[in-house]
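Recap quiz, item 2
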Amino acid sequence: MARWEGDAAGRLREAAMRLYGERGYEQTTVADIAGEAGLTARTFFRHFADKREVLFAGSEILLTRMVEALDAVPVPDGPMRAVAASLDAAAVMLGRDRAFSRRRQALIDANAELQERELIKMAKIAAALRDGLLRRGVPAADASLAAEAGIAVFRVAWEQWMAGSDDVDLPAVMSAARARLAAMTAA
Amino acid sequence: MARWEGDAAGRLREAAMRLYGERGYEQTTVADIAGEAGLTARTFFRHFADKREVLFAGSEILLTRMVEALDAVPVPDGPMRAVAASLDAAAVMLGRDRAFSRRRQALIDANAELQERELIKMAKIAAALRDGLLRRGVPAADASLAAEAGIAVFRVAWEQWMAGSDDVDLPAVMSAARARLAAMTAA
């Protein structure tokens, strides 16, 4: 049995992506998505708060993984190494399915409300990384800077990876973007 | 005559800030603001698209100044120097009135809709800086990274300056944050 057949959330997500792509995000209702997946609207709402959340359901897990990775780095290694570990964890998690990521990004790029939601998600991750660095005793200004710089690397690497050829993997792009930022700021 | 007396936009802004502070942003209408300023709603709409824009009216000018400063740096100086010049221009423009900035920030921090608008504003500035760097022949990934890193410095310096004591000026905080980012990424 294919994974999605027994997985209501996965079926709903797949149905939503298909309809958003065919009809547009605005024109698709929760009832449409549930119908397309052969499920009820009630089942939809057990898995997602609204039709927007279908595209952002992984972001809580992503944030948790990134903070765990940050926390796992020994404090003496400094804030940028902790942020780097956090980005590597994100890259491993997000770098699995480029075709899905591209479809999702195309939907987001076409809709201002989804773009706002994506900005808010990134701001939440930045705040969580900053808080994690504060817990490690990093001074406030350095914690904010390291977290925001990490998010800058994240965004850029993510875009590059989605636009790139299939032989490039996200962890490698993320690590190269970190090195580029260091080289540019040093210059 | 005090400056605001002959300046409808300034009077409306001052009235809006006062009412937002007293009643809350949600509870204040355009009619309230116009009445408080001794003007009509029609005059309000000649100056601002809606009550939210009262708090963001300067952002187009800010973006223009930042891009002009970026463009004025000789191309061989590299992307980070161009971004630095752009941040310095922003610091000069924004660093004049800390009391106003603090009041404005307190309103934004209290309202999710305003926070979103602020995120969008920063994303637009990042995109404009990136486009400016692309026009200078900076490779796409470097242009995005330099622009996003610049915005990271901007945000952090801005917060620090608002929280800081009155003898610290924004251009100095901005420049120190740039230096800290370079030192942290090099480590």
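The interface with chain A takes residues 78-80, 115-116, 119-120, 123, 141-142, 144-146, 148-149, 151-153, 155-156, 159-160, 177-178, 180-182, 184-187 of chain B (CB under 8 Å).
Chain B has two domains: 3-53, 58-186.
End of item.
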